[in-house]
Every structure is written in C-alpha cells, then in structure tokens.
Amino acid sequence: ESSVCCSYGDSRVVMAQWDAVFTASNGGKVTTGYALFSRLFELAPGAKDLFSRVNVGDMRSPQFSAQMVRVMTGLDLALNALADQPLLESLTGHMAAQHAARPGVTVDGFRMMEQSIMEIMPQLIDNFNPDAWSNCLHGVIDGISNGLS
Ligand code: HEM
Fold first, then answer.
1. Which residues fall in the annotated binding site?
2. Distance from the CA of 129 to the center of ligand 1, in angstroms?
3. CB–CB of 137/14 below 8 Å?
C-alpha cells in the first residue's frame, strides 16, 4: 500500500536504536508504553475509552502496566522482524486480528500512535534516525491496523 520502503539498512538502524530503548536507564516497556499512550490520548482523547477494561483511569495501575507490557512486547517482536518480511507479516497479521476484534479501534487511532512513536522515540534514542524510523514504522503500523475501518 505504501510507497515508503524499509530497506535492509533502515531495518538495521531501527533494530539497533530500538534495542537501546530497553537498555537505557529510563527505558523499560512500562515507562515507554506510558509515554506513548499519554501522547496518543492527547492526540486522540476518545481512544482512552477503548482501554476501560485494562483500568486506563489509573495508568500506573498493574492492569494498565500489563497492557503496556503486551503492547511493547508486540512492537518489539515486529521491529525485530523487520529484516524478515514473511515473519513480520505473520506477526503483524496476528495483531491486526486481535485489534479487529475490538470495536472502536480504527486506522486513525493507529496513525496517531505512529505519530506518537515518532515524537517520543527521539527523546529516548541518541542520534535518532527519522528517515529509517518513518520508513520502517509505517509498514509495521499498516500491518497491525490492516483491515480496520
Ligand atoms: C504500536 C502499536 C500497537 C501494538 C504493538 C499493540 C499491541 C497490542 C497487543 C499485543 C494487545 C493484546 C491483544 C490480546 O491479548 O488480545 C493489544 C490490545 C489492545 N489494543 Fe493494541 N497495540 C497497538 C496500538 C493500539 C492502538 C493505537 C489502539 C487504539 C487506538 C489499540 C487498542 C487496543 C485495545 C482496545 C486492546 C484490548 C485491551 C483490552 O484487553 O481490553 N492498540 N494491543
């Protein structure tokens, strides 16, 4: 669908820079997920209601923290599969089906999450490479939101 291309070189950069997030002192899946979803809820306040089942009213709760771990683990799996297209498609396709099963989750919401990731990651990653990230992240987000309205 998209014209941007995640080259092999782009994928190497993104995978290395992503790994740095989880070794940095301020890293960690919960902290990073919290930052990403805080920005998402600023961009798309209505999306918050989708997460009532996981206690979004208290974003520091164990329930919402667990949601952050699930999301960030899914993103971790996808980004680490960037250089293996069939594996990537299988991983993102599975997550697309999980999201299609949740009424109210839209492509627009995922576009906002893409924006959030592109805004937050430069704060966590030294020498953030915006071209490599936008080239590779776009396909991942497309894959996870494939089939949503
Ligand atoms: C980086 C992007 C994202 C990734 C990797 C991701 C990954 C996941 C994963 C792995 C789950 C658990 C699925 C399950 O156990 O059935 C999940 C649940 C969910 N996701 Fe996402 N997600 C992302 C973005 C979004 C966005 C942007 C929205 C909404 C606009 C969203 C809405 C939901 C909802 C509503 C659930 C179910 C929560 C519940 O258990 O009640 N996700 N997501």
1. 99
2. 26
3. yes
Q: Which domains does the chain have, with CATH numbers?
A: 8-144 (1.10.490.10)
Structure tokens at 62: 């164990």
pLDDT in tens, 39-92: 999 999 999 999 999 999 999 999 999 999 999 999 999 999 999 999 999 999
Q: Is the CB of 70 under 6 A from ligand 1?
A: yes
d(CA 7, CA 25): 30
Ligand 1 centroid to Cα of residue 71, in Å, is 6
Complex ipTM value: 0.98
- pLDDT of 3 reads 47
Torsional sign, CA 73, 141, 51, 128 = positive
